[in-house]
Amino acid sequence: MGISIQDKVALVTGANRGIGKSIVETFIEEGAKKVYLAVRNPESTAELTQKYGDKVVAVQLDVTDGNGIQLLAKEIQDLDILVNNAGVLVPTEPLNEQAEEALEHELDVNLFGLVRIAKAFAPQLEKNRGALVQMNSVVSLRTFPQVSTYSASKAASYAITQALRETLGERGVQVLSVHPGPIETDMAKQAGLEEGEAPSTVARGIVESLANGNFHLFPDPMAKTFEAAYQGFSDAIITADFSE
């Protein structure tokens, strides 16, 4: 199973900067018919709306607001591809006084946000036999102390993504779990990473992985080292069929 971006309608959360913005640009370059820019402040998408005109539609969305997500899902009925890219990172070591507060915030956005989004939009993705793309991370597989709570939230979102692969897959919906390493974004700078790959590396990897029907994407050089070590376990355990 694979899906092309050509002539499709997509929605990208956190579309106003970094990886999200690059995904929007790449989707349109690859022939997407329309992209919804789902952000907390629609005015922050001015650059994209000026550049692409009626090919993009800015919509207000906060992934911590379940009611708002449900209302938006009722308004949008032409969706083929949903990219859940919005996320937060609070650099926190596990014994830091703020660790619990940071973890609560990150789980609300990075984990519960995914659950809220998936529940709201699953019916129309099923109707259109579309795709759900979840932005996870290499730190969903290996925790680093300075981003310990973020790692925990991404490990949890990866667990839910695996479950979505099976439940939505049975309904004809493709699921893609994206695991970048260091990417040149504001979030990476928050984590103390001054250098990284261009966000377009992730965006173009998503287009290719969707077309190929892949479940995992490890888009950049560091991520590919994780992929090489993880592949055997993934084939034998994560994507294996345990239904028999």
From TrEMBL:
<dbReference type="InterPro" id="IPR036291">
    <property type="entry name" value="NAD(P)-bd_dom_sf"/>
</dbReference>
<keyword id="KW-0560">Oxidoreductase</keyword>
<dbReference type="Pfam" id="PF00106">
    <property type="entry name" value="adh_short"/>
</dbReference>
<feature type="domain" description="Ketoreductase">
    <location>
        <begin position="8"/>
        <end position="186"/>
    </location>
</feature>
<dbReference type="InterPro" id="IPR002347">
    <property type="entry name" value="SDR_fam"/>
</dbReference>
<dbReference type="InterPro" id="IPR020904">
    <property type="entry name" value="Sc_DH/Rdtase_CS"/>
</dbReference>
<dbReference type="InterPro" id="IPR057326">
    <property type="entry name" value="KR_dom"/>
</dbReference>
<protein>
    <submittedName>
        <fullName>SDR family oxidoreductase</fullName>
    </submittedName>
</protein>
<comment type="similarity">
    <text>Belongs to the short-chain dehydrogenases/reductases (SDR) family.</text>
</comment>
